[in-house]
C-alpha cells in the first residue's frame, strides 16, 4: 500500500479512523446495554487503578471495586451500568 499511487491523504485517514472508533464505541455500548440487569459469570483477572476487571463468556468487560480475594476467581455478577471507559459496572452476587 505504501508504494501505491493515489494514496489517501493522512488527514483523511485520521478522520476515517476517528469515525470508525466512534462507530465501534456506539456498537459496543448497544451490545453491552442488552445485558444490563442480567447475571453473568465473570473471570476477574486484573487490577486497573483500584478496580478488578474481567470478562463475561461473551466478552463484556466488567469491573468491580478492588478485592484481592476475587482475583483469578470466576464469580456471578449483576451487570448494572456502563461507565465512560466502556466497562460494565457490576455487583458481585
What does this protein structure show overall?
The chain is an alpha+beta fold and 93 residues long. The chain has one helix at residues 10-33, and strands at residues 39-48, 51-56, 61-65, 74-82, 88-92. The protein has a 5-stranded mixed beta barrel. Strand 1 and strand 2 form a beta hairpin. The longest helix has 24 residues, at 10-33. The chain is elongated, with a radius of gyration of 18 Å. The model has no long low-confidence stretch (mean pLDDT 89).
Short description:
With 93 residues, the chain is α+β, with helices and mostly antiparallel strands. The chain has one helix and five strands; from the N terminus they run αβββββ.
* Count of DSSP strands: 5
Low-confidence parts: none
Distance between the termini: 51 Å
Helix percent reads 25-40%
Largest sheet: 5 strands, mixed, barrel
> Spatial order of the strands in the main sheet?
1-2-3-5-4
Class from helix and strand fractions: alpha+beta
Categorize the overall geometry: elongated
Approximately how much beta-strand content do the residues carry?
35-45%
Order of helices and strands: HEEEEE
Radius of gyration: 18 Å
**Overall pLDDT confidence:** 89
Number of helices: 1
